[in-house]
Amino acid sequence: MDNISQFPPRRDARTSDMESGHLRRAGALRLALSSSKVLNATDRERAAGNLDRLLDELRDSHGLARADIARAAGLGGNGDTDSSKRLDTYTLPPDASEARKNRLAVKAARHFDLANAMARLSTLPEEVLLCRIFEGCSFGVATEEFPDWEQERWSVLARMLTEMARAVIHDTDQKGYWSTVGMMQFPYDFETGAFGEGPYSFDQHSIETGLVNNVVCRDDAPPIPSVPLASRLMAEPTPVVLKLDGGHSQPASLRFCLTFHLALGPVHGLTEIGSMLELRSEIGLMMPDGSVCETSYPIQSTFSLPPKVMLDGEWVQIVAIDGYTEPEPEGRDGAEHHYLGYYEISPALLRMYLTHDVFPTEYLRIVPVDARFPLRFEWGSVGAGLQHDLLDGSLERDLAEVCRSMQADLNLFHAKCRSASLAAEAEAFNRWRRSPPSQKNDA
């Protein structure tokens, strides 16, 4: 009988249909979330009641405490605060008061975070948990039968990015990294990535309050791990004349590019580390023949000191740039080009910034020509390149490598600071040491 192949047990068709239904319903729920739909009053109470019962079931079946699930969902809580209290606006026990009903959350984003946390802690399918939470709700029903493919693919891409980033945050202990950064005050050179170098200490306030919907000056930016994704022009190149040291002039063009990075850091404060889209301005010089000019340091804004430029193999100081005009920095209203902008990743945000009607967006990562995956985007587009690198794991590996490299640099810098601190303290204690008063024997 050894030559008889053993086949796996036949799956019940009803089981397959149920799984398909969960996947379809979960997809519709995620599409509703990506469309920024909110919960109506009836759905708020129904979802909160469902979630309350589901948390009790997981406590009994899997031994999962509410506080543990809340922390895993990013709702905060530490040794001094009970994170389960953060669930009050998302759960509704049978005997809840009208006042508590009125406090229920209108937005559904945290319900999805809780479903994801429960899935990770229990190994139950996330789609099933989502369907349990929104059972009997009208939320997502209108979009279930006829999803918009264009909108859905950006929703899938946003989810892939955030899920991948969440895994990297866990695998590289980004919470530990930012905990160490938050306890220290030190200069950080954003351009070179050097800890302890630079004229200013990094902006501590920005990480305590959160980076999302905030702008930070490059001169005092915190050490945020990031990888470049894409870039495009913000305006047509501007013709200028470089006034050089020695009275010479050189015609050139200024290129204002908007560069997008995937960044990891304090989203809404140090208790919540997440993924963000980072917006940067990159200002470059081009010669009349189209070649790129090498400069001694990046041009940051009209207010920055002009750098040196490499001409005929020699560095020449730029004294002034005649004709310098700059477009408004996109995504950073009221700020200058040397400020960075941070946004939570969403389907609408990706679609808005990674596609453009006037200037084509260039994907900055190399995608092998012979590497083909079943992609939702046209081959050669930024969306296709990004989804490809998510599917083959290269973006995840590169982001994790950046995180580990910065963690190693931080550990080395922290050790040097600690050593210097201990030496200074020892020197002070030695300086303050006094010999005990001599005792005279009575004659």
State the total count of DSSP E strands. Answer: 11
Shape: globular
Output the radius of gyration. 28 Å
| Distance from first to last alpha carbon | 110 Å
- The SSE order reads HHHHHHHHEEHEEEEEEEEHEHH
The share of residues in extended strands comes to 15-25%
Give structural notes.
- By secondary structure, this protein is α+β, with helices and mostly antiparallel strands.
- The chain contains 12 helices and 11 strands.
- Strands 3, 4, 5, 6, 7, 8, 9, 10 and 11 form a 9-stranded antiparallel beta sheet that branches.
- The chain starts with 12 loop residues before the first helix and ends in an 11-residue tail after the last helix.
Summarize the entry for a quick read.
The protein is an alpha+beta fold and 443 residues long. The protein has helices at 13-34, 41-62, 66-72, 98-102, 109-122, 126-133, 149-171, 174-183, 204-209, 347-354, 382-391, 394-432, and strands spanning 188-189, 194-195, 214-217, 226-233, 238-244, 249-266, 273-286, 308-311, 314-322, 339-344, 362-363.
Write the layout of secondary structure elements.
Blueprint: H1 13-34, H2 41-62, H3 66-72, H4 98-102, H5 109-122, H6 126-133, H7 149-171, H8 174-183, E1 188-189, E2 194-195, H9 204-209, E3 214-217, E4 226-233, E5 238-244, E6 249-266, E7 273-286, E8 308-311, E9 314-322, E10 339-344, H10 347-354, E11 362-363, H11 382-391, H12 394-432
Antiparallel strand pairs: 1-2, 3-10, 4-6, 4-11, 5-6, 5-9, 6-7, 7-10, 8-9
Helix pairs in contact: 1-6, 5-6, 7-10, 7-11, 7-12
